[in-house]
Amino acid sequence: MKINKITILREGINSTFQDLGRSNFYHIGLPFSGAMDKRNYLIANKLVGNKNNEAVIEFAYQGPLIKIQDGNINFAVSGDINFNIKKNGKLINGDCYKTYFLSKNDEIDIVSTNNSVYGYFAVSGGFELKKNFGSFSTTVRASVGANNGNKISKNQNFIINDFGNKYIDKSLKYINSKIEYIRILKGTNFDYFFEQSIKELISKEFIVSKLSDRMGMRLQGPKIKNLKEINIRSEGLIKGLIQVPPDGNPIIMLSDHGTIGGYPKIGAVISADYDRLIQIPSRKKIKFKLIELKEAEKLYKLYQMETENLLNQI
Predict the structure, then answer these.
(1) Residue extents of the structural domains in the chain
(2) 119 exposed, middle or buried (CB, 10 Å; 0-12, 13-18, 19+)?
(3) Cα–Cα distance measured from residue 8 to residue 20, given in angstroms and rounded to the nearest whole number
(4) Digitized pLDDT (tens) for each residue of the chain, 314 residues in all
(5) Could you give phi then psi for residue 238, rounded to 5 degrees?
(6) N or C: which end of the chain has fewer CB within 10 A?
(7) How far apart are CA 299 and CA 191, in angstroms?
(8) CA 1, chain centre distance (Å)
């Protein structure tokens, strides 16, 4: 059987293998992890003919430089990404949401994201990897997941599972939309904060800190002041929760968040806005809008319908 193998010539930034994440391991301190932008992850896999939960390479700001070492690959890149292809010695500008077929010695250079953060590289057949806790998703801080729980590094080689070496010619017209506000619900400790601070949370702009990562998004702006307790007994956390530490700068829990925390929780980002939230780059502004649970449920159903509609177009 012919072997399809790639070599990483440049690892990119925070390049890891991800899928839809792990389930039911909070009790041992493991978060779900998984792809930060679920919609772009699903689109990438659908374009190359994979099952929904196949492993892809996720990267932030800059992706890897990849060389086809042996055989062929059929791939797609999703997100708002600049990338180039070197095919038969010729340089081609790549288009996101479109499949390409490359052979031995061809290269893919994922140069950068466009005013966004995360992108995805998927290959037909998926990568030959071992699951950990039932998932390919990598949580680097815990050294859990595919690739021994590590980021992808320079000079690593990866085998592509057999896909019949047939070119899947697919594309999707899709623009990564942005919204004016990130919508939130009241957190369990909403009443711990001064009324003026709550008003500032939903009326003022915050800046995404450069210290943000897959674990949490740190914000800078008006100080959110606590009138009751700046520390509480540790409680369970979920993705999207907004915690406020003693310095008054909110932190939004992201996909690799800790499973418990002792800071008061002023709010929670709705699930329908999570993909857009994580694509806001560092040093960019973010604004919040407080909504009710019933509206959040309707927005999530709409998000699910829109995602299914996009996948059905492929």
Answers:
(1) 4-160, 182-312
(2) buried
(3) 23
(4) 678 999 999 999 999 999 999 988 888 889 999 999 999 999 999 999 999 999 999 999 999 999 999 999 999 999 999 999 999 999 999 999 999 999 999 999 999 999 999 999 999 999 999 999 999 999 999 999 999 999 999 999 999 999 988 899 999 999 998 888 999 999 999 999 999 999 999 999 999 999 999 999 999 999 999 988 777 888 889 999 999 999 999 999 999 999 999 899 999 999 999 999 999 999 999 999 999 999 999 999 999 999 999 999 99
(5) -130, 165
(6) N
(7) 25
(8) 34
Q: What is the pTM of this model?
A: 0.95
Query: Between the CA of residue 254 and those of 36, 57, 148, 174, 212, what are the distances in Å?
Result: 8, 18, 22, 25, 9
Q: Are the CB atoms for 241 and 226 separated by under 8 Å?
A: no
Residue 87, amino acid: K
Q: Which tokens is 281 given?
A: 């780059």
CATH code given to domain 182-312 = 2.40.100.10
Q: Specify the residue for token string 């709705």.
A: 270
